[in-house]
Design brief:
about 290 residues, alpha/beta, ten-stranded mixed β-sheet, three-stranded antiparallel β-sheet, globular
Length: about 290
Amino acid sequence: MGTGYDCFDERAHTDNPTINPDARKNRQILSRAMEKEGFAGYDKEWWHFTFSGAGPRKDVMDFPITPLEASNVLDASHQLIVVTSKNWTDVQGTAQRYERHGQTFRKYEQPFPVMLGKNGLAWGKGLADNVDQRDGPVKHEGDGKAPAGIFKLGTAVGYDSTASTRLPYLALTSITECVDDSHSGHYNELVDGSTIARDWNSSERMRRDDDMYRKGIFIEHNTPASPASGSCIFFHIWRGPSSPTLGCTAMDQADISRLFDWLDPRQSPLLVQLPEMEYEHFRASWNLPER
């Protein structure tokens, strides 16, 4: 079908011209079959359809929707990456991997150092959001802070044409951009700047002269995007063990290579990123493992 599991970048757009002919044909077959039965497709996700046909009201679905508790989010995960810093403004952190064994998480291999945003951490938009009920700064575009909270991990990216990883993988080219203009319809998306109408004034070129994105993993902060809430957050290779980022979480190349090898979308991996005091505050209620 032209993408890997849970891929939300531009290749998932139904009519993306860069996918191979077989995938394009398969998407057309699927779309025709679904439309015949009364479903309308969403043009940015080839698998996403909404029933639009007439029929009786589904009163069984008429119930209030409440936010998903963080503990329930973690219950479905079998791989965790926990990143903690000393406080909200610290630019250095420590990452520890965990794997689920029954009802508990156990540490997997040794922790490793990471660098955070140049202005520390701030509450981001991830899973189980209740930011208004918490103390601490709230992330916004251009604040130089890495997002705090619980986040899904999306597409792996890199300079090589292929990569040894079970994550969906996007090979970066000279025209791959991540849009950080919150007025754009492609805000917080990876796009091929040559194939779509340009409606942004600001973006980050992903294929660089340095090694920063030679290997990276998209962190699903602010996905789907709310304007000005922050964009283009990745795990990526650091400039060095004392160089903070503009809002990403950076690490040694060997450590991100280990993440490429270890992460498995079938295990519903999550990132938990918090200052130590917040981690301890939420540990029991969120069912987080001991650090």
